[in-house]
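tool_call predict_complex ligand=adenosine-5'-triphosphate
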Amino acid sequence: MIELSGVTKRYRSGEEWLTVLDDVHLTVEAGEFVSIMGPSGSGKSTLMHILGCLDVPTSGSYRLFGRSIEQLSAQELAWVRNQEIGFVFQNFHLLPRMTAQKNVELPMMYAGVPRRERHRRALELLAQVGLADWAHHLPNALSGGQKQRVAIARALANRPALLLADEPTGALDSATGQEIIDLFLSLNVDGMTVVLITHDADVARRARRIVRIQDGRLVSGAGEEGRS
Amino acid sequence: MNWAETLLSAWTAIRSNKLRSFLTMLGILIGVSAIITIVALGQGGQAAVIATIESPRLQNTIQILPKETLEPGLPQPDQVLSFSDQDFQLARQFPGVADVYYTLYGQATVASGGRVVNASLNAGPQYLNEIAHFTVVQGRMFTVSDVLAHRRVVLLSPSLAEKLFTGSSRIGQTVQIGGQPLQVIGLAEPAQLNLLGNFLGTDYVYMPATTCRDLFPWWSISEMDVQVKPGVDKVDLGNRIVTALNIRVHDSNAFEESTRFYAGLEQTIGQVTRIFTLVIGSIAGIALVVGGVGVMNIMLVSVTERTQEIGIRVSLGATKRAILLQFLTESVLITLIGGVLGVLLGVMGSFVMRAVVGLPTAVSGWAIAVSLVFSTLIGLICGIYPANKAARLNPIDALRYE
Ligand SMILES: Nc1ncnc2c1ncn2[C@@H]1O[C@H](COP(=O)(O)OP(=O)(O)OP(=O)(O)O)[C@@H](O)[C@H]1O
Ligand SMILES: [Mg+2]
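tool_result ok
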């Protein structure tokens, strides 16, 4: 499903070039549950953004569902982001002027889901992440963990085939974190491919495969050998 | 996203930042209301001037004048031909003629019991009230028999009566005009026709035309008005009467029908007010353009401020088109609301001008339509650049934007 080969990402800081991802090769098959671990600043989020079609590599190629991402039109890319990928940002990125429910509805709005159906599904998803009573609150009235759960509900809105979650349990206590991972696991059983970033070894252990990254290089779990 | 949803979300965005949205609208609002008011003033002024020129004439009336009065410049009074009684008799004989009348206008001193007041004298047929625009508020109007019998009767405007008499009874009193005693048979309030009417004073005397000729035989009759029966071709009848009159006074060009003269005059007035409206209107137009630049500026700021929001929307699958539509709808909605409020304010301003200041105004539907179209265009033009700029961003760059 995911095929990264020779992906490099560089940023320019002043005169110098900073290499954030260095010759990354990574394959993820459909139906896998993968966690990515690595120290802060090692390039995890950058990798995730490329996987989520939100950023483009400086060099190297990325194939998703067998299609080369560089060759997709802007319209097709929008469709991929909307329909095939659910993305949970490290810092949530909720729209501040919309209620939790409206935030969850947003991807469905761009997908053209009718209003009624959107309402129903948004409330259902919020209930699933334990926020049934918070549907009509604005994000700034929510705690960090609640915002994170709204972001997760939003990522699941269009039933994506691929869920990318950047530290989805970072702001949660361990009990709530476990519940979210349980939810991910059950979705994974139903066929959703999950890639998540975590610092928590307990969380990582529940994945069937752990990819380790250091200074922009994958040090283990990049290919076949990492699967348990 | 369908239209209703796009509109609703644009409205929500505008409402969530009320003050700034209002300030953005303000430029458009002021520009549009200025244009509406100025055009209303121009058109109203033009209509008032034309109405003043036309007001002494009744509908279905042919006005015949000595040619000299129709030429440019002021005519020499002694050279102007005066109509004679025979002229009137001749005109009356034409089939299709309902009545032939003349009016006399001039200044006269009115005296009573030692008081002397200068007043405007209007004399004419028994339906003078329709020609000179006044309403009898007390007593009666003079009748056909008053006119035919040259009776010494007058009507005074209330303000004039106030100046002449101390007691409360005015009807039946006697006043001296041109050294002759006349009986007051009624009080007549001159209608405030328009702006120019305000400058002409309010002291009026109305009397039968025949009486006036007796008092002031040296006043020349410089106008003949022919009332035609319904269904009669005005132009044709006018031409035939003029031709007959010209042959009769042995000068083939002495008299002329006045339509040509008025048409020319109205055209000139139209041109003058058009230039006036154009000049002031373009100043207001500049205000509108400045308002548009303000909208563009705010839209740019708003897009920059909401770069993160755009990044989030794109990362959730918004197409470039959806983003463009969102911001365009917002900016068009802002300028359109500004335009509509501007029209309302402009129309209100025109009413205030008329009601309080007394200036004649006529709100123009055209000016309203043009302003609304123009403010929508400003919204489109000023929205497209920032919206396009936002929609082109790489989502992660937009998300990182601080
Ligand atoms: N737009 C950018 N311009 C310059 N440098 C960048 C940019 N984006 C990321 N970086 C750099 O790339 C490196 C990796 O960043 P990244 O966010 O991928 O780290 P991370 O592994 O997710 O860290 P953390 O665990 O703290 O979230 C950092 O040193 C960061 O400063
Ligand atoms: Mg990160």
